[in-house]
Amino acid sequence: MTIKTSILLALALTGIAACSSDNDTTVTAPTDNSQSTAINDSLTKITADATGVSADGAMEVTLDGDDVSVLIQLVVADPDSGALITEIRDPDGTVIYSASLDPDTGEPGPVVSDYFDSPQGNNGAVSVFLPPTPELTLKAGTYRFTFLTENDAALARAEAFVRSSTGSIDLESFQANLNIWIAHPDAAFNDQAFEQTIQTTFKDSINTILAPHSLQIATVNVLKATEAEVTRFADINAEDDEQSAEACRAMQAATTDKLALNLVYARALTSNEGGGPAGFSPSPGIILDDQAGNGCFFVGQTAYVAEPEFGFTQELADQMMAGNILHEAGHFMSLQHPTEEAGDDFDQLLDTAQCDAATYDGRDDAVFGVPGELDGVVTDFECGIAGGSKNFLFYGGVPQFLPFEMSPDQARVLRRHPLFVKTP
Question: Which of 128, 204, 255, 260 has its CA 20 to 30 A from that of 219?
Fold first, then answer.
């Protein structure tokens, strides 16, 4: 489950005009008062003057010929205020993304882009990752990111993480680390046996999906929430931004490996209607910022409970949870579902299968003997392998399609994310 632009952007933004989407390159240059810090040999953090960026309503980042990706992070001083990227221009002045606001509702309208399929916005902070698809090759020069904030709220931080590569990045091996914070009250999920399950079964299952693309999770750091934190965060409402943000901050305060994926492993995820998702994540999430509420993603243990009497063994439950973790990590690093459940909304990657409703809704699955139902929702069985049900980011996910797989284009995006580093 991806957390996209929140309805809290509504109405409060309607009085602010968005920038136009033509190719007029006459713009006011934002205040340039930035500082650069090397994070590692291939990653540089650019910290801009948040006051100046707030006043300009735009941030500019200049890339050179060796730069292969950039992650923009704009953190709002008021964590309850939303932010929305309204336009991205490349060094030639070409608009490669635009999102306006509906004047009646204040909601973000349709996105105009060949590379993004949804508005880039969120509560408390907004981030955007380039390139979100291999079809976009970054150019040397200055990229301009224009944004709006709810109630014209000021920014607390404005940052960019620029990734560079002097070699052939798609022929090299990369690895990422994973922090898992256990916020579960049951002893069975706080003992050495479960930690061993994380370090072997979960990690190995994740790496089975990553390995064909020369990617891997190298180190898994297991952390434990305090008794008070478990009481607060064992069950997390996926629609409660304040609770999830508090959990992220509490987790990040306990981490020592900062350049890593951050996962909150809760007992259960809920919603205002009761039942909740198996996991959720901001997309993309915020990195290297302990104060940001969008710096982690979530899974719920009760989403996959073994039922051996029905053929759902503990081994299958563990594989499903591992796939769930990587699914949400993929969202955190900007990837989207190849197909949404209505079968009419797809990602922008050319090599992920599309399960369009016109073709698949109501289709019987002859392999598993599951009849289809023409109901406006495309399911795993209706889509099948041809429709992408084996992809680790398919919106559903059922054990019949294990082991899950990753497409080459999805891997190309991940290896450019700042959290993946070249394998030593």
Answer: 128
